[in-house]
Write a structure and sequence with these properties.
Elements lengths: L18 H21 L4 H9 L4 H9 L26 H10 L6 H22 L3 H37 L1
C-alpha cells in the first residue's frame, strides 16, 4: 500500500487482449464484410479500415480496380472547376525520369546566392584581364611605382659611380 496523500493509478487496471480474442474479432469482422458485400451495403469507412488493416489481398485489389462511388448527389453533378486538381497515380519509373530532366526548384535566397557567386567570378575574371576600372587604376599605379623605382635605381648607380670616381681623382 503506497504511503502518502497521492496515489498513482497508472497501469493498475491494465488488460491485454489475448491472441485468441484478436483472432475471434478478425473472424467476426470478415463475416460482417461478407454479409455487407452480399447485401451491397459496403460503407466508405469500412473500405478505409480494410485498406489500412491486414485484410486479404484479393479484396483490396478488387477495390482498387473499381472507381470510387460518389456519395449522394455529388455523383450526378459534373464539376468544371479549372482550379480543381485530380490526383493521378504516378509510376515509379516515371518519377525517376522526371527527376533527371528537371532542375531542382531553388528558393529565392539560394538563387540570389548563386547569382552573387557568378557575378563575383565574372568580375574576378574581368579584373584579371584588366578590363575593369579598378584593374586599370591598379595597373596605372603599378606603372608609376615601377618608373619611380627605375629612376631611384639610376640615381643610386650615378651616385655610386660618382663615389668611385672621386677617390680615383685623388
Amino acid at each position: 500500500m503506497p504511503r502518502g496523500k497521492y496515489t498513482n493509478h497508472k497501469g493498475r487496471n491494465r488488460k491485454f487482449t489475448s491472441p485468441e480474442e484478436l483472432e475471434e474479432q478478425r473472424k467476426q469482422e470478415e463475416l460482417k464484410k461478407k454479409w455487407r458485400k452480399e447485401h451491397g451495403d459496403e460503407s466508405s469507412s469500412e473500405e478505409e479500415s480494410d485498406k489500412s488493416g491486414s485484410g486479404s489481398s484479393d479484396e483490396s485489389d478488387s477495390d482498387d480496380d473499381t472507381p470510387a462511388k460518389a456519395k449522394g448527389v455529388s455523383g450526378l453533378i459534373e464539376v468544371e472547376n479549372p482550379n480543381r486538381v485530380v490526383k493521378k497515380n504516378k509510376k515509379l519509373s516515371n518519377l525517376d525520369n522526371l527527376g533527371e530532366g528537371e532542375k531542382p526548384q531553388l528558393s529565392r535566397r539560394e538563387r540570389e546566392e548563386i547569382e552573387r557567386q557568378r557575378a563575383a567570378a565574372a568580375y574576378q575574371k574581368a579584373h584579371a584581364e584588366g578590363k575593369t576600372e579598378q584593374a586599370r587604376a591598379d595597373l596605372a599605379r603599378l606603372a608609376i611605382i615601377r618608373q619611380q623605382r627605375e629612376e631611384a635605381a639610376k640615381r643610386r648607380e650615378a651616385e655610386k659611380k660618382a663615389k668611385d670616381e672621386t677617390p680615383k681623382k685623388k
